[in-house]
Amino acid sequence: MKYFLLPFGCQMNLSDTERVRTVLQQMGYEPTDKEEEANLLGIVACSVRQKGIDKVYGRIEKWNAMKNRKSVITFVSGCILPADKVRFLKLFDLVFTMNELPKLPEMIRQYGVVTPMKESNPSANMEPFWEINPMRASSFEAYIPIQNGCNNFCTYCAVPYTRGREVSRPSEEILNEVKELVEKDYKSITLLGQNVNSYGLDKKGEEINFAELLRRIGEYGKASGKEFWVYYTAPHPRDMEDEIIEVMAQYDCLAKQIHIPIQSGDDVMLQRMNRHHNLERYRHIIQTIRRVLPTATIFTDIIVGFTHESEEEFENTRKAMEEFKYNMAYIAQYSVREGAVASKWEDDVPKEVKRQRYHRLTEELMKHSLVYNQALVGTTVKMLVEDYDRKNGYLTGHTEGKIVIRFASHDENLIGQIVNVKVTSASPLSIEGILLTPNS
């Protein structure tokens, strides 16, 4: 018996998929990357963008056609809006929330009855899910979920409706998972949540906050004597206290890279997005990072063409990019998502205007990232070797600051190791160098 599993969306969905694999393989199913070979076909869906859901519909249409030739079971889980749930119940054999994953073996054994999702909060009772030991996709990079759900209700976003309200995972479990990974020589660990720096706020008096969680990870890393990097994504400016940045400066294992979404550089637009922060608050965070963590790289998320975005509002976002000089920005052209508050508003910025604004911000990003990368030429940086590069004869990976880097080598034994590389050239989004031996 074989299974085929298809994840869509963010790192959280990829992390969830690792636990789905564990449950299926404990049942005796073997993985396959060929849909035609599978007896069980599953999707971890993402309702955040319409494009992701369109892919789900396209795939289930194909899978249901396969049922004319062989007996297969189909299922879907992940981030799913209520309206999509109703449609999926008619298309998939099994539909369930991630907190119901421990019940999947029973669902499959009782296959024949489509499983409706009864809980109003998909984040309720996540503990049994978190207790599942994930089937890691990598032997040196890992994701650790520290919370599920979101309380922010940004007007463009559907996550509170797909994952429910914020629920923090017990810190003891998180710390134990970090220790287990480090003991197995994992080099890169990413703490995941829809709003990681609000960790523990739903359990005040019972649980530590995010800064203290980082501190305890840092203390363990310091005592372990091992070299590894811990990242987190994604924080919210509203909850980004100075203490978090100050703790990061104290421990080598807390990677000097921060992904802090701005979404817009205009205060009126931020209010329209219900972002709970303004440009002044965001500027304080960036200035604190530059002061306390001068070597840190800064990444962000931006939306262009959100409802009613004027040229002046867009220009304020461009000016913010110019001011903050990001190393990387994930720029999205706004698209309406059913279920989010803004889906009731007119999507009145033309597609061509969105496309032009996207390209203008991309040019702004390239300009500043190139200046930063060129300053690295001649210096020695640490990098985690991750894979073979598309350029023949090269290996590729990321620096501690998550700058893409490659060097000439055929030695596959370096994959999964942190090595020293002398930077010899730079482009806007990557650098290249020469591998240094320990004695260099």
Model description:
35% of the residues lie in helices and 22% in strands. It has helices spanning 11-26, 50-66, 82-91, 104-109, 127-130, 159-162, 171-183, 210-224, 242-250, 267-272, 279-292, 311-324, 351-375, and strands at residues 2-7, 30-31, 40-46, 73-79, 94-95, 141-145, 147-148, 167-168, 188-192, 229-233, 257-259, 297-304, 328-333, 380-388, 394-399, 404-408, 418-427, 430-436. It has three domains: 2-109, Rossmann fold (3-Layer(aba) Sandwich), CATH 3.40.50; 127-373, pyruvate-formate lyase- activating enzyme (Alpha-Beta Horseshoe); 380-436, Nucleic acid-binding proteins (OB fold (Dihydrolipoamide Acetyltransferase, E2P)). The chain has 440 residues and is an alpha/beta fold. Residues 112-119 have low confidence and may be disordered. Helix 7 packs parallel to helix 8.
Could you list some keywords that capture this structure?
single chain, 440 residues, alpha/beta, Rossmann fold, pyruvate-formate lyase- activating enzyme, OB fold (Dihydrolipoamide Acetyltransferase, E2P), 5-stranded mixed barrel, 13 helices, 35% helix
Please tell me the total number of domains: 3
What share of the residues does DSSP label as strand, in percent?
A: 15-25%
CATH superfamily of the largest domain: tm_1862 like domain
| Protein structure class | alpha/beta
- Relative helix content: 25-40%
Radius of gyration based on Cα positions: 22 Å
Q: Return residue spans where pLDDT drops below 50 for at least 5 consecutive residues.
A: 112-119
CATH fold field value of the largest domain: pyruvate-formate lyase- activating enzyme
Could you report the average pLDDT, rounded to the nearest whole number? 93
SS element count, helices? 13
